[in-house]
Amino acid sequence: MRCLVIGHLTHDIIVKDGRKTERIGGGAYYSSLALSKFCEVVVLTKIGKDFPIEWLEELESYGISTIIIPSEKSTTYELLYLDEENRQLKLLSKADPFTLDEIPQEKFDIILLNPVANEIPPNALELVKAKEVAVDIQGFIRDFKNGRVGLKEINGEFLKNAHVVHADVNEFQHVKNLNPDDLEVLLVSNGSESGVAYHKGEKYIYYPLKIDAKEPTGAGDVFLASFAYFYRECPFIQALKRANAFTAAFLERRTIDFPIAEAMEKTKFVKVEKVNTDEETSAR
């Protein structure tokens, strides 16, 4: 299986508990790591000459190929953690956005668009060719004022070209002209709290496993990527449970270096409930 991930790899400066660390990041990084457990992965990205070569070598060590389009700068974020789940983002520099003629026309089994700073044009979804197209909306709705990262409202009609869309609960409130019924799958996560998933118009509530996660960075990216793979391999509810179990295993270890079977053992502890929409409507 061949998978393409599109988005900026980032230089992340993480400030937590008074300590500062620097490392590779970005949705494309975490999503490609997750997919590398299951398929051949190619990452299309833009970085500057200042991007540490050892970070690219890390991707290579997992069998991940990169298509690098040179940029004057790399996308750099400062992530200031206020507590275990809440953070403030500041954009320090930004790589060039992708143009439509840079979007590959080659067909893949899965194409995952995971922007972090408005680098992917929305109409790119009309060009990509894959059996399954997955999108994380985080980088489409971010707004930047003096480097500070906020959220802006967007017209979500372009997302109808995707098969699977992920957002967190705060992000999805900023997406207009898009209903869950417009999509094959919509995943709306809420950190360690219960999330909502829609599949072909049916609504479900899922409950992430309770784990001792020291840091949540990349959780949504791993969740989306692993779900995109599992959804091709098994029915929706099983895919949702497996993606939650896989994400929990990643968060516990902060690495994907764990046996798949070990992560899948956690699947039986993931709870998913179907919501009766008739009862929900009558209760309002």
Automatic annotation (TrEMBL):
Annotated Carbohydrate kinase PfkB domain residues: 173-254
InterPro entries per UniProt: PfkB_Carbo_kinase, PfkB_dom, Ribokinase-like
Kinase keyword on record: yes
Entry keyword Membrane: no
GO MF annotations, alphabetized: kinase activity
This protein's UniProt keywords: Kinase, Transferase
Origin: domain of life: Archaea
PANTHER family listed in its UniProt record: CARBOHYDRATE KINASE PFKB DOMAIN-CONTAINING PROTEIN, HEXOKINASE FAMILY MEMBER
UniProt family annotation: Belongs to the carbohydrate kinase PfkB family.
Protein name: Carbohydrate kinase
Organism of origin: Thermococcus litoralis (strain ATCC 51850 / DSM 5473 / JCM 8560 / NS-C)
